[in-house]
Structure formats: structure tokens, C-alpha cells
Amino acid sequence: MVCFYIIIAFVFLHVICDLNYFLRTIFTVITSRFCENKCSLDDVTTIYGLCTLQDCDVFFKSIRTARLVREIDFARYHFYERVGIYERSIQSGIKSLQGSTMTVVYEPLPIFALYKITTKLVYWDERSLFFEHEVITLRDGKVRHLLISRQYAIGSTKATTKVLLKGLPGSSNIPKCPSHIECWLRSMQKSSNKLRNKHIIVSIIALAYIFWDVNYFLRIAFTIGIGRLFKKKCSIKDSTTIYGFCTTQDVDIFLRHMNNARYVRELDFARFHFYDATGIYKNIKAVDGHALQGASTIRYRRTIPIFTPYKVETKLLYWEDKTMFIEQKFVTFDGFVRAIVLSRQNLINVDADTLLKNIPGAESRPECPEEIKHWLDAIEISSARLRKKD
């Protein structure tokens, strides 16, 4: 029964963690500590391995790169223990962290082949140790893989490697940086600069989305741009049309249909498109004027379900000296008017005659529709009541 529980525990450990990795690390450190002599920083250390079924690629022919990167961990721990870096790191509180690895494959390492990994410290600077690892098959002495790794020494001081290596055998002979490592460092520097630039751009975009409704401004620019490129100018009495699609950003809390506020938001895009297509926007800019929404009423006749395309039709119904009255309709592709909107646009620093000058269809003012008359009466009654309260 005890054996059964031991087997269950052993299997469970294999499931939740890479047990072989920890066992191999412990074995490597113990054998290097008790069975091998200490060596200098400029010496080469060697560990041995066998390419098993756990190491091979999907074709069961050779070792995969991920296992080689795993193997150099053991080679590095072995080196640290033999030269005294591991003991020194514990004393000084300096930790080692893999910064980068370069792998060069000369020939594949076959499955079931015995091999050795030689490790040499080829260079160090204030913050990093640079190792070269050669993977050599024992049967023919061929170098199958070359791996170069950069280990960051992380501590409380800036010159951490100086503290880490001080007094160790060979630490007085600081090697010159090999040319291939110099090229590698330059390559990583270029890559880091690109990533930093990308991070800056991503951060700016993220902040923009946090502090502004970026999609609102993009949609306005897109709507006006498409209108200018692909649609002809129209008369003030014509209807203009833009198209939309109810996405997950538009729906209500039940994720079923467009929420009430998004209807009003869509009206802005349709109105700006109408202004640009008729020439109103150009005349407003010429006199530094502005059209400000003064009132609106919207009647929701039927919901626009999620993932439903629709169009917004915009038409100028009537205007006075300082106001314009616009009708807008939300129409789905089945022809049903889902919502209808009346809005009053107050003209700032410009009058209607100046605004509509030289615009086709503005020669004669249309009669005020009956629904607008009643709506204006309702607004006036509401305004009078508010004035009494004030």
C-alpha cells in the first residue's frame, strides 16, 4: 500500500512540475561539489547527456532546440558550482537571470546519441556574464550545436559582476569581448530600440483610448473621407445616407440590441456627413461659425439587434434665421424605420442665409412641417416653466 502511495505521489509530481529538471539540477550540483575539483573562471567545464525520447523532435530523429536550452541550464549550474560563483552569489545576495540565448545548429544531434556540453565564460561586463556552450557527440567528436547565453547578475549595486567574481580564480584576467558577441549585442540593441519604440506607440494609443473616445474621432474622419472620395455633392433638399453595424460596443447590458445612447452618437456622424456633402461645413468654416445641437427628440420604433447592419438617412426639413431642423431615420435592410429623430441645430456666429449661400436647393425655404410646429410648442412650454423656476 505504501508503494502505491509513493507511485501516486511520484506521478502527481511529474504532472504538476518538471520533476526530472529538478532532479537533474540536484544531481549535477552534488556531483560537481563532491566529485570534481574546483576550477578557474577561464577553464572549460563539461557535463554529459543522452538524447532520449523525452528530448527528440516530432519526427523522433534528433534533439529539439528547447531541450538544448534546458540542458545548458545544467551546464551553467555545474560551471557556477565548480568555479565558486554559486557560493559567492549566496553570500552577496546576487541572483542570476537568463537575459538572452543564441543557438546555432551545425548538424542535428541524433536520438539516442551520447553527447557532452562544454561551458566557457568568454566575457563579462558590469551586469552580465557571457557563456559559450558547445554540444559535441562523443562517437565522432563533432560540434553539433553552439549556444551563447547572456546571464544578468542582479544585485543591489550597479557593478554586480565585479562583486560576484571578485577574488575568484581567473577573475583578474578580464577577457576581451569576442567579435561575434559584439555583433550579437548590437543586434539585440537594435531589437530593443524597436521594441521600446513600439511600447511608446502602444502606450500613447492606450492613453488616448483611456482619456478620449478615439473611435468617435476616427469614425468622423472616416465618414467624411469616404464621402469626399466616393460620393458626389448633393442639394440641400436631398437626403444623405451613411451605413452602420451594431457591434458589441453598441449593445445594452443584456447584449441583445443597440443601447439608446449609441443612436444619438450615430446621428453625429450622419449629420457631419450631411454638412460636408451639401457644402454647409465649408460655409461654416469660412466664417468661423458653428452649428450647435439645441434640442432633439427621438422615437424608438423597434430595436436594432446586435450584429445587424443599418443605414442612417439625413434630411434638412426646415430652417430659420438662426436654426436648422434636421430629420434622421435609422433604417434596417428590411426597409423598416427603427427610429426617427428630429433635431434643432442652433447657428453660432453665422445666420442661415450666409450658411446656405450658393448651395443648390437653398433658393427657397420650405414650409415648416406640422410635427416641427408642435415640437417647438412643446419646447417653448418646457422653457417657460423652467424660466419660472429660475
Largest sheet strand order: 1-3-4-5-2
Number of strands: 10
Largest sheet: 5 strands, antiparallel
What is the number of helices?
A: 11
Distance between the termini: 89 Å
Over all CA atoms, what is the radius of gyration?
37 Å
Arithmetic mean of pLDDT: 92
Residue share in β-strands: 25-35%
Q: What order do the helices and strands follow?
A: HHEHHEEEEHHHEHHEEEEHH
Low-confidence stretches: none
Q: Indicate the percent of residues in helices.
A: 40-55%
Given the helix and strand composition, which structural class is it? alpha+beta
What is the molecular shape? elongated
Protein name: Protein THEM6
Keywords: Membrane, Transmembrane, Transmembrane helix
Transmembrane segments: 6-23, 200-218
InterPro entries: HotDog_dom_sf, THEM6_lcsJ_thioesterase
Summarize the structure in short:
By secondary structure, the chain is α+β, with helices and mostly antiparallel strands. The protein is built from eleven helices and ten strands. A five-stranded antiparallel sheet has the order 1-3-4-5-2. It has a five-stranded antiparallel sheet with strand order 6-8-9-10-7, covered by helices on one side.
Question: Which terms would index this structure?
Answer:
elongated; 5-stranded antiparallel sheet; membrane; HotDog_dom_sf; transmembrane
